[in-house]
Design brief:
Blueprint (H helix, E strand, L loop, with lengths): L1 H25 L13 E2 L5 E7 L4 E6 L6 E6 L3 E6 L2 E10 L6 E4 L5 E5 L3 E6 L5 E6 L5 E3 L5 E7 L7 E7 L7 E6 L9 E6 L5 E6 L3 E6 L5 E6 L2 E9 L5 E8 L9 E7 L4 E6 L6 E4 L5 E5 L9 E5 L5 E5 L5 E4 L5 E5 L4 E6 L2 H5 L8 E6 L10 H22 L19 E4 L14 E6 L5 H6 L1 H8 L5 E3 L4 E3 L24 E5 L2 E2 L1 H11 L16 H12 L11 H7 L17 E7 L7 E20 L8 E21 L7 E8 L4 E7 L12
Parallel strand pairs: 1-31, 30-31, 30-32, 32-35
Antiparallel strand pairs: 2-29, 3-4, 4-5, 5-6, 7-8, 8-9, 9-10, 11-12, 12-13, 13-14, 15-16, 16-17, 17-18, 19-20, 20-21, 21-22, 23-24, 24-25, 25-26, 27-28, 28-29, 33-34, 35-36, 37-38, 38-39, 38-40, 40-41
């Protein structure tokens, strides 16, 4: 009898469960109020509007300051071609300089074109194409005064002493040029001058020397007014900004001169001559300011070292945009809308900046920007913008709660909003990503709604391309790792913190029936904020419905909450992250990281790391492979040490597992700049083999 009661109860229970399931399956869908949805369009890259096939390697380019339709280029053999953009099929003017690897420039009036090598400077009349005059000079650097009446050149000592001085010429009558003054270097300066410029108000003239010294004279009185010491060697350029606010010089870092491709630039504020900042992280052959002085552009012709032609903000040094080309030289038009580039491929290119790039000099940096990916032939899901807004706000609050829990206050990241204070969501269609200008210093988080025909999304060529650009292109030098960019495609090291973009699957957030999982978004952002290892798989879409169900249940369990919480080390790291501290300067002094193996009497292995950074070191972290040397990916957190702004510090980490042969030290300074270096861990009786 008792058994029959149990069977009856089970039958009733089964019927009840089946009835509940049938009810939820067959019930009509709840009415969902459709809210208006708007999407922002992704900004476009600078447009290539003209190409002129010069022939040989183009070493220098210039756009006429009075007529932007005139573009000049000179190649390695001294052949100068002047092109008219209104008639691109033929050369407008043709000149010939007697020396190789010269540089060119228009006079401020646009009437003269000058070209200088390592012995001669030649002046032509632009209108007629005739040669007017020539001067002896020792270097390819020269500078016109802003009124076009004076010309400054560099000359070697006639007595044979290895010293180069500055000569100033009166060129009001270019057919009869007369010398005005000779400026000698200040006492104690070693070496010769190799870079020169005149300020846009005609007040100062400055020259840079191979020893790293910059001398500044009063152009009217010819008296030395300032002598500045730098860490640069063999300066490639020295420039005043057109708005009279900055002076910048660039060249090789003296300490890293043996690694000759390590270059950078240093900027000063005027008239105080206070150092504004420096960037010593890549190869820059030449740098020019925009006419309003709000941007500067660096030309780089090394595809494997740096980011090509990159546009920077002079306000804080933040990268604004880049051109998908490698170049030896770059030139602005007088209105700031056009850029001309020339490089190894022998092509002079003219680019038009879009309004988005022109506005970016005043846009806040280091924000999370949101993209809703949907092919152009599909319609957005109802209220998708509200779902994304709700998700990102919940994630933002979670980070604030976690930072407060660890004693750092309610710090959190910022995401881009529209004029109504709602999340600004960009709509990406089936357009190659190269067409879009994804700002390098931001995080771009892609939301994909799998309910809207997921398979068509996952198999289309655009998404495949988004995943392909997640491959990491890294260059190692003797100190640190930094990300590179080639052919206009975003390459990203999410753990470096300098470029944020698409990184394979790690930046994609897939929807569930209830919307987007805020925990997955939280975990993804951990990687993009550079507080975790390089790889993770928690964010991939799982097509199997049963696996999705059990994964979802597991994440809701108490043990499933650990991966969205912040550890003390992570919160401490984020306390100085750029994304948690708005408007930090991007200028960055060069860091150093070295390693020693400590001999001990125990079986443990102690490794000592010495780090130095003039910006102050906030924290060091050590990462090792998950298992053994066979697994190359370094993504297991080993430990951290806070250094509280010390400029030089030595820390120790213990690695007990003898199978671990590699490791990565990651460092963040007090301004949120991140550097990284990998090491090999050998036996404690051997010297460490540092990986270059």
């Amino acid at each position: 009898m008792k058994g029959k009661k149990i069977i009856a109860l089970l039958i009733v229970l089964v019927i009840t469960v089946v009835g509940i399931v049938v009810y939820f399956i067959s019930r009509p869908p709840q009415h969902q109020e459709l809210l208006p949805q708007t999407f922002a369009q992704l900004p476009e890259k600078p447009k290539l509007i003209d190409e002129f096939h010069h022939g040989l390697w183009v070493y220098s380019v210039a756009i006429s300051p009075t007529d932007p339709s005139l573009v000049a280029g000179v190649d390695q053999d001294g052949t100068i071609k002047l092109w008219n953009r209104n008639d691109t099929k033929k050369i407008f003017k043709f000149f010939r300089h007697p020396e190789k690897i010269p540089s060119i420039g228009f006079s401020p009036t646009g009437k003269l074109l000058a070209c200088a090598g390592y012995g001669t400077l030649t002046i032509w009349d632009v209108a007629s194409g005739t040669k007017i005059n020539s001067l002896e000079t020792s270097f390819r650097q020269f500078a016109f005064s802003p009124d076009g009446k004076q010309l400054a050149t560099l000359h070697e000592n006639e007595k044979g002493i290895h010293e180069v001085f500055v000569k100033i010429w009166d060129i009001r009558n270019p057919k009869k040029i007369t010398e005005i003054a000779t400026l000698y270097k200040s006492p104690g300066v070693i070496g010769y001058a190799c870079a020169i410029d005149i300020s846009p108000d005609g007040k100062w003239i400055a020259a840079g020397y191979v020893s790293g010294t910059v001398n500044v004279w009063d152009l009217q009185t010819k008296q030395l007014v300032k002598s500045i010491e730098t860490s640069l060697h063999l300066m490639d350029y020295l420039k005043f900004s057109p708005n009279k606010k900055y002076m910048v010089c660039g060249g090789h870092d003296i300490d890293m001169y043996s690694t000759y491709f390590v270059k950078g630039h240093i900027m000063w504020e005027l008239p105080s001559w206070q150092r504004k900042g420096e960037v010593l992280r890549g190869n820059v052959e030449n740098l020019v300011f925009s006419p309003d002085g709000m941007m500067c552009v660096g030309a780089n012709d090394w595809s494997h070292h740096g980011r090509g032609v990159e546009i920077w903000s002079t306000t804080n040094g933040a990268p604004i945009s880049s051109l998908p080309t490698e170049a030896t030289d770059v030139s602005f038009s007088h209105d700031g809308n056009l850029l001309a580039t020339g490089g190894k491929d022998g092509i002079v290119r003219v680019w038009e900046l879009t309004q988005s790039q022109l506005n970016l000099a005043n846009v806040r940096n280091d924000v999370v920007r949101l993209i809703y990916y949907l092919p152009k032939d599909k319609e957005p899901s109802p209220n998708i913008t509200q779902k994304i807004d709700k998700t990102i706000r919940k994630v933002q609050k979670h980070y604030a709660d976690e930072m407060e829990r660890h004693g750092f206050g309610r710090k959190t990241f910022t995401f881009e909003t529209d004029e109504n204070g709602k999340a600004k969501i960009y709509h990406m269609k089936e357009i190659p990503i190269e067409a879009h200008d994804m700002q390098l210093n931001d995080i771009w988080l892609v939301f994909i709604d799998y309910k809207n025909d997921l398979q068509s999304v996952l198999t289309d060529s655009t998404l495949k391309h988004l995943k392909s650009v997640g491959r990491r292109y890294i260059h190692y030098d003797k100190t640190f790792t930094f990300p590179t960019r080639r052919k206009g495609v975003i390459k990203d090291n999410i753990w470096m913190g300098h470029i944020k973009g698409f990184t394979g699957d790690s930046s994609f957030i897939y929807a569930t029936k209830k919307g987007f999982d805020w925990r997955l978004t939280t975990y993804t952002l951990k990687h993009l904020f550079a507080v975790l290892g390089r790889e993770h798989r928690l964010n991939e879409y799982e097509p199997n419905v049963f696996k999705r169900f059990f994964y979802g249940i597991n994440r809701k369990m108490p043990w499933g909450k650990r991966w969205v919480k912040l550890s003390k080390c992570e919160a401490e790291w984020l306390n100085k992250s750029r994304f948690f501290n708005p408007n930090q300067p991007f200028f960055d002094k060069r860091p150093e990281i070295e390693m020693d193996v400590l001999k001990t009497d125990t079986d443990s292995r102690l490794f000592q790391f010495t780090a130095a950074d003039e910006d102050g070191i906030h924290q060091l972290q050590l990462f090792v492979p998950k298992e053994t040397e066979k697994q190359y990916q370094i993504n297991k957190f080993q430990g951290c040490q806070a250094l509280n702004g010390k400029k030089t510090a030595t820390v120790e980490f213990e690695i007990a597992n003898p199978e671990i042969k590699r490791g990565e030290i990651r460092m963040i300074d007090m301004h949120g700049n991140i550097a990284s270096r990998e090491f090999r861990f050998l036996e404690k009786t051997s010297e460490p083999d540092k990986e270059e």
